[in-house]
Amino acid sequence: MSTSAVSTEELMQMALELVDFDRLPADSAIYVSGDGIERVLFGLDIGTGELLLARQLGYQAVIAHHPVGLAHRSWFVFKRHIDLMVGAGVPRNVAARAVESKMEALRISGQSRNYERVPMAARVMGMPFLNIHAPLDEMGRRVMQDAVDVALRADPDAALGDVAAALARLSAARRAETEVMVPLGDSAARAGKVVVAHGALTNGGYDVARVCFDHGVDTVVYIHVSPEDLKRLRNDGRGQLIVIGHLVGDAFGIEPYVRALRVRGLEVGMLSQVVAGESP
Ligand SMILES: [Fe+2]
Ligand SMILES: [Fe+2]
Fold first, then answer.
1. How far is the CA of 152 from the centre of ligand 2 (A)?
2. Cα of 66 to ligand 2 centre, how many Å?
3. Tell me: the pLDDT tens digits for 247-264?
4. How many domains does the chain have?
5. Which of 168, 205, 273, 280 has the most CB atoms less than 10 A away?
6. Torsion-angle region of residue 205: left (phi > 0), alpha (psi -120 to 50) or beta?
7. Pairing of strands 129-131, 29-32
């Protein structure tokens, strides 16, 4: 075993340190522990097929981004939207009310899933397996907010379309087949105060965006939004929304982690062309 070999615990710890998290969030987990790992396969979504592929290609561990069978507990991470809203100027009691309904829906629907399915396959195969979600999405949120802030410092009156274009110029966005969209608001209008609401399990939907618009935020950035939530926001007739695209938004957070693994001397295979592990 070479000096670069790591354990699954070290793989997780490296992600937590990237964003200064002192605890494992409820949407991230080590399903099968292992050590002596030098070759790891990373994918956004891992199922039994990808685990078998990893074994066949000689990988010693698999890291998923999205939670694999944690729906019964990952709903709790949606609460992070409260801090994001408070940081954007929303009073805490208003922010707390804005997450209630979605958190309850996530908690109830989380009871229906077979949370053992893929983790058990990994266990039976003896394949070290973990998923890292909120820490990498928090990293991605910082990357996107920084890109937005740089654009607004260069031109405080930048248009909504200019801010979307600044995000679309980042390398992961250029590799993707999706577009950075402006589905709400006039691209020529001033972007104003822009808040990237990401890193809290999933997008904040209608309630989080509406509360932000009610409290001085001109533009909200999500990586994806449901058609129903978008319709409701459009019906309100105010606010501006930029949608990055799911793979691209996730790439911004995953890439710094993959680079850190490679600096550590690990070989990382990627099940993505959008998430390439290059500099943003
Ligand atoms: Fe993500
Ligand atoms: Fe995602």
1. 26
2. 6
3. 999 999 999 999 999 999
4. 2
5. 205
6. left
7. antiparallel
**Ligand closest to CA 144:** 1
If you measure from the C-alpha of residue 3 to the centroid of ligand 1, how many angstroms do you get, rounded to a whole number?
31
Residue with token string 């994918």:
43
Same domain flag for 169 and 155: yes
Q: Give the pLDDT band (50/70/90) at residue 1.
A: low
Residues 81 and 194 in one domain: no
Among 145, 99, 133, smallest CA distance to 250 is for 133
Does the pTM surpass 0.85? The reply is yes
Ligand lying nearest the CA atom of residue 252: 1
Model confidence over 160-190: pLDDT tens digits? Answer: 999 999 999 999 999 999 999 999 999 999 9
What CATH number has the domain bearing residue 172? 3.40.1390
**98-102, 116-120, 273-277: range with lowest mean pLDDT:** 273-277
Range of the domain at 234: 138-248
pLDDT of amino acid 280: 40
In a domain, residue 277? The reply is no
